[in-house]
Amino acid sequence: MMARDGARPAYDPAGPDAALRTALQEVRTGRWMSMRTLLTETASWSQWTQRTQVLAAAAAGTDVVRAWLAEEPDSVPAVVMHARVAVERALRAARGDHRRTQELWHEAWLAADAATRASPHDPVPWVCLLALARLDREQRWDEHRIPAPEPMLPPGPWGLLAQAGKRDPYNREAHHRMLQFLFGRAASGRLAEAVGFAQWAADGAPPGSALHVLPLYVRVERYRRAGGHDAALDLHWVAEDATREARRAFHNWFELSTAPERSPLDLNHLAHALWGALQFAEATRVFDAIGPYYAPLPWVHRTSDPSDHAQAVDVFLQARSRSAAQRP
After folding, report:
1. In b/e form, how buried is each residue of 221-230, taking b as 16+ CB within 10 angstroms?
2. Which of 21, 38, 88, 142 is the most exposed place for a label (fewest CB within 10 A)?
3. How many CA within 13 A on the CB side of residue 228?
4. Which whole-number Å values give the CA distances from 3 to 14, 202, 293, 295, in the listed order?
């Protein structure tokens, strides 16, 4: 890990959550007791959502959750984690165009649906169903073409988003899953619907909510689809609207939230946006908050090869150094 001393950062999916890091280490070795203890002790829905998501990414290539569920079939956390893992596997299969995608999608839907009944006050099963909506590219399912609450937005899985929001208002992951659904609709490159959604969500979010960072994710996606890694595209980040979005996220989220509430991914997107907009004083404050918890996104999109994380680290370090050197 690094401090702000020039050492090269390394990505850690647990971020500053030391208890989650311990559970992840156990999961990777096929043990589930630490995961059970961690989830039993998790107090807030926002932390529950984030921890189950990270744990599922680590557990998806193992049978650890299946072993836990076999041992404790009445465990609600085990049922929820079973849904999480099933969804993660279905999404990975879809990304790889795997022949079992349809089968895994069906299994994941059944697991998530079961979790809604096992844990009725939990937003995560609904987040799981929302994550699967992106696989229904033609919106054949009725629940994926519900009229939007805002006339300018398209039909989609709004009912699933509302169910998650009923249980955890302004749930961060639920809104990111909705954004990914809209990115999938914009396969031709047009992102107007995603832009509208991100602005609508940010405008309706309370002070300190991570939803104020959503427009920055859309801007990164627009940059990525335009080709990225092109000096001519640097104007994308210093445009008036880009600067306004970065500063709004800084003032409405960063300055009004506490460290435990901040996702490293959101912090990295904000630092990236402020640096790109030449807002060096604010960027340096965000880099200080990032500390050792670097995330490859969005830095990989500033490189010639998004699969080369070493290049992404170089861009991150250059941005951090330049911001610190040029702040007033």
Report:
1. bbbbeeebbe
2. 142
3. 17
4. 17, 31, 9, 14
Angle, in degrees to the nearest 10, between helices 18-28 and 33-41: 150
pLDDT digits (tens, 9 = 90+) for 128-186: 999 999 999 889 999 999 999 999 999 999 999 999 999 999 999 999 999 999 999 87
Task: Choose which CATH entry (1.10.150, 1.25.40, 2.60.40, 1.10.3470) describes domain 1-185.
Answer: 1.25.40
Locate tokens 């050197």: which residue?
A: 325
**Each residue of 216-227: pLDDT tens digit?**
999 999 998 887
CA 179 – CA 83 distance, rounded (Å): 21
| 3 state DSSP class of 74 | coil
Residue carrying the six token digits 């249980």: 167
For the packed helices 76-95 and 33-41, what is the interaxial angle rounded to 10 degrees?
110
The tokens describing 145, both together, are 């073409």
Q: How far is CA 281 from the centre of its chain?
A: 26
Domain boundaries defined on the chain: 1-185, 194-328
Q: Whole-model pTM?
A: 0.94
In Å, how far are 44, 172, 174 from 168, measured between CA atoms? 9, 9, 9
Token pair for residue 129? Answer: 């169903």
